[in-house]
């Protein structure tokens, strides 16, 4: 690596020069292809529409709050995700010589399986090859922790958990596995890794960041790039979001995605403004990109946010000056989804600013949300070039970079010339096509959700868990024999039996899903009960609700057994009968029991009407409580595992004012501890959350599982000592809300960066 010291900074910032990406022969091929393209063919390479706009279907804007998970089963979405026909592909990809397409969050063909994905990708590729340009297509997807738009894919821990592993080799392996499951769907460009340094825990994209430490972010970003781009199939990675998206100031954010955010309130941090000088910019926010650039990352995505009051998309100093010229990046710079519309009064003015700043590909919803169609956007760009507002040289530079990525990732290669014996080599070369024109290879559909991938995900989950507190060495728990726990074991909490909460945002839907029906995996409760079938599960889900059958990580049929006692069922029925009355008196406390038999009973008081999920509602409005801990010796103290954390979210929808745990689970944990149970607080969360002193003083252990994905068995492995606890915090943990910003946590956090108690594997 070439290392130089930038004299403009007040610190010694080590700048890694970007990889050249291609050879001299490749560059010669690129120039030959570029010389043959017409202006319209070149502009098609610069446009990246959402493929859901290729068919005639209702716009998402007609579905009301279409961006929320509630619309997942709507007729609108089914129409948008109907399989693309060859005619539709020819009318869009072929006619306009498109260079790339994407499916936004939640986009998936119907049925949502790898073979349907492959068929659709092949149809789009055939249309691209039939076009006058004849260039293969880049098919893009947000595979940020696995191919998360695909049902039954393996979903790995989100980046915040991977940061706690401190294992570059395993991050690289997960990147490769995500790439292979994506390639099995015909995808060849993944919008990952996120190289952001999240400096405020209230930001809704904190879990997409590896760490608050720029050096750790850089190492792991480079590792993921290696995994993605060396997976053995044509695949490009994308470092994002250039630059300083994790450094925005509270109160400057406004959620605006060109139509998606019209009915959404402004948010505090996401898409906001970062105020920082050159030294801070380079040391904190540019630094994580440098190892990825040196590793040869093929693409970089620009941030929605602003730097010192200027939109990053419209900043030539940031995109062309710093990234392309100073750091030597020769790949593609792509805009974020509908980001162009944020940069000017008219689309024409905005696209001129963005393209002239150095953005090579415009990613667009293209009319999906009732905004300007991508065909119209293409016409506006062509008109701007005709007026001279966008120089022809800038267009050539952009298309040259697109071709370079297609060559570098294996989509384009020079055709072999065949010269007959004694024939004229020059004449043969003139008749030979410049490059091979064939549908690019796709991955093996059988790898999706396979046992090997799930086993790797399970290992990653175990390595990402961080043990914050372990009084008396409670963890690992002792496993009993013959299916009986070594001690009484109770499992409860809002996240105990929820794949949706385990997976978080960017999981089948942009904003994630609730419940277990959306994919295949193992919940933490199921994983615990697989080790200790005698464990009692007090579920937060409504009693009697039909459970969804699924498969374990090993592919076996799984019956999801919920241990609702008769008393719990009675409590639920009673809650329904009294709901209206309690809604008028929600500040009142209630007490009762959910334990059958003559065991001592615990009175649990709560008044939490603001929580709308079933678990909190039951605690707030029903006579529901926990049993007194059974009497036992110190060696077999009864244990209650309270699995709690955040509901799924993504981007600005995850910006919060407070980093609080669900109050119902806090009260449950405190009540269980006061009743004599040894409480293990297990956090399923996309960021550190405040641990109130009354809670922290009562629980015996605190284990952070972050957003582990589909393989909850990895959490149980740490709980029962099948795997050691080795994870270390990638973010320092705040004492209180005044430490939400990283700078404030320098003055004594509750748990420092790198904290993590260790245990040994047993058995």
What does this structure look like?
This protein is α/β, with parallel strands linked by helices and 763 residues long. It is built from 24 helices and 21 strands. The strands form 7 sheets. Strands 14-21-20-19-15-16 form a 6-stranded mixed β-sheet, sandwiched between helices. Strands 4-5-6 form a 3-stranded parallel β-sheet, with no helix packed on it. Strands 7-9-12 form a 3-stranded parallel β-sheet. α6 packs across α16 (451-464). The longest helix is centred in the C-terminal third of the chain and has 19 residues, at 566-584. It is globular. The protein starts with a strand and ends in an 18-residue tail after the last helix. Mean pLDDT is 84; it is low at 1-14, 62-73, 427-431 and 541-624.
**In whole angstroms, how far apart are the ends?**
45 Å
Low-confidence stretches: 1-14, 62-73, 427-431, 541-624
Mean pLDDT: 84
* Overall number of strands: 21
| SSE class | alpha/beta
What fraction of residues sit in β-strands?
5-15%
Helix content: 25-40%
Rg calc: 27 Å
Please, how many helices? Answer: 24
- Shape label: globular
User: Strand order of the main beta sheet, please?
Assistant: 14-21-20-19-15-16
Largest sheet: 6 strands, mixed
Q: What are the main properties of this structure?
A:
alpha/beta; 3-stranded parallel sheet; 10% strand; disordered N terminus; 6-stranded mixed sheet; 24 helices; 763 residues
Please outline what is shown here.
This protein is an alpha/beta fold.
Outline the fold blueprint:
Elements: E1 3-5, E2 14-16, H1 24-36, H2 39-45, E3 47-49, H3 75-80, H4 86-94, E4 100-102, H5 114-130, E5 138-141, H6 159-165, H7 168-183, E6 189-190, H8 214-229, E7 238-242, E8 273-274, H9 278-286, H10 289-295, E9 299-302, E10 306-307, E11 310-311, H11 316-326, E12 332-334, H12 347-357, E13 362-364, H13 374-387, H14 392-408, H15 425-431, H16 451-464, E14 466-470, E15 489-492, H17 499-503, H18 524-531, E16 536-538, E17 550-551, E18 557-558, H19 566-584, H20 614-621, E19 639-645, H21 663-674, E20 678-684, H22 693-696, E21 701-704, H23 713-719, H24 742-745
Parallel strand pairs: 3-13, 4-5, 5-6, 7-9, 8-10, 9-12, 15-16, 15-19, 19-20, 20-21
Antiparallel strand pairs: 1-2, 10-11, 14-21, 17-18
């Amino acid at each position: 690596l070439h290392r130089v010291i930038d004299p403009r900074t007040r610190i010694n910032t080590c700048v890694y020069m970007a990889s050249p990406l291609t050879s001299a022969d490749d560059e010669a091929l690129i120039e030959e292809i570029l010389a043959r393209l017409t202006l319209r063919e070149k502009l098609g390479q610069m446009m990246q529409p959402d493929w859901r706009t290729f068919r005639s279907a209702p716009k998402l804007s007609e579905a009301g709050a279409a961006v929320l998970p509630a619309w997942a089963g709507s007729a609108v979405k089914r129409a948008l995700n109907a399989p693309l026909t060859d005619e539709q592909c020819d009318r869009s990809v072929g006619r306009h010589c498109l260079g790339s397409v994407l499916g936004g969050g939640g986009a998936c063909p119907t049925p949502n399986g790898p073979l349907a994905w492959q068929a659709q990708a092949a149809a789009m590729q055939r249309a691209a090859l039939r076009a006058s340009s004849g260039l293969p297509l880049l098919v893009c997807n947000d595979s940020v922790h696995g191919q998360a738009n695909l049902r039954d894919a393996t979903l790995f821990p989100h980046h915040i958990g991977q940061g706690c592993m401190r294992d570059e080799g395993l991050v690289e392996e997960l990147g490769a596995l995500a790439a292979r499951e994506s390639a099995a769907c015909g995808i060849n460009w993944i919008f990952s890794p996120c190289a952001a340094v999240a400096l405020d825990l209230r930001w809704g994209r904190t879990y997409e960041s590896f760490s608050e430490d720029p050096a750790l972010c850089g190492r792991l970003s480079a590792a993921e790039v290696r995994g993605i781009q060396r997976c053995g199939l044509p695949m490009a990675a994308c470092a994002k979001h250039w630059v300083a998206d994790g450094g925005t100031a509270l109160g400057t954010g406004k959620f605006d995605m060109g139509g998606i955010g019209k009915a959404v309130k402004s948010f505090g941090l996401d898409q906001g403004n970062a105020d920082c000088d050159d030294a801070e910019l380079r040391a904190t926010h540019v630094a994580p990109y440098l190892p990825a650039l040196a590793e040869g990352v093929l693409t970089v995505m620009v941030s929605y946010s602003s730097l010192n009051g200027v939109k990053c998309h419209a900043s030539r100093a940031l995109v062309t000056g710093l990234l392309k010229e100073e750091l030597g990046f020769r790949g593609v710079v792509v805009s974020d989804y509908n980001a162009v519309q944020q940069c000017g009064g008219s689309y024409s003015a905005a696209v001129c600013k963005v393209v002239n700043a150095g953005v090579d590909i415009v990613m667009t919803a293209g009319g999906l949300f009732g905004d300007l169609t991508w065909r119209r956007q293409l016409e506006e760009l062509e008109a701007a070039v005709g007026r001279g507002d966008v120089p022809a040289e800038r267009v050539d530079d952009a298309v040259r970079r697109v071709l370079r990525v297609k060559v570098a990732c294996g989509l384009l290669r020079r055709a072999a010339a065949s010269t007959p014996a004694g024939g004229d080599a020059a004449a043969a070369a003139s008749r030979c096509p410049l490059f091979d024109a064939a549908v690019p290879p796709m991955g093996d559909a059988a790898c999706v959700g396979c046992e090997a991938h799930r086993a790797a995900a399970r290992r990653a989950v175990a390595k990402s868990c961080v043990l914050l507190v372990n009084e008396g060495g409670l963890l690992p728990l002792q496993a009993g024999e013959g299916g009986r726990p070594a001690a009484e074991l109770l499992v409860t909490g809002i996240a105990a039996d929820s794949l949706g909460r385990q997976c978080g945002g960017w999981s089948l839907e942009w904003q994630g899903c609730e419940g277990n029906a959306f994919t295949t995996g193992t919940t933490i409760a199921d994983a615990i009960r697989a080790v200790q079938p005698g464990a009692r599960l007090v579920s937060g889900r409504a009693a009697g609700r039909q459970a969804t059958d699924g498969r374990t990580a090993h592919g076996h049929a799984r019956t999801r057994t919920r241990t609702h006692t008769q008393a719990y069922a009675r409590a639920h029925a009673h809650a329904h009968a009294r709901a209206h009355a309690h809604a008028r008196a929600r500040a009142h406390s209630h007490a009762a029991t959910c334990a059958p038999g003559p065991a001592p009973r615990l009175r649990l008081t709560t008044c939490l009407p603001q929580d709308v999920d079933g678990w909190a509602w039951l605690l707030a409005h029903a006579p529901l409580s926990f049993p007194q801990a059974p009497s036992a010796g110190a060696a077999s103290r009864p244990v209650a595992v309270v699995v709690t954390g955040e509901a799924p979210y993504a981007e600005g929808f995850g910006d919060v004012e407070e980093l609080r745990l669900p109050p119902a689970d806090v009260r449950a944990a405190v009540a269980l501890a006061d009743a004599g149970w040894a409480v293990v607080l297990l956090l399923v969360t996309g960021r550190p959350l405040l641990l109130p002193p009354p809670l922290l003083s009562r629980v015996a252990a605190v284990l952070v599982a972050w957003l582990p994905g589909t393989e909850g068995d990895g959490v149980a492995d740490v709980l029962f000592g099948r795997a050691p606890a080795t994870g270390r915090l990638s973010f320092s943990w705040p004492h209180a809300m005044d430490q939400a910003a990283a700078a404030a946590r320098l003055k004594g956090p509750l748990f420092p960066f790198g904290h993590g108690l260790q245990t040994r594997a047993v058995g």
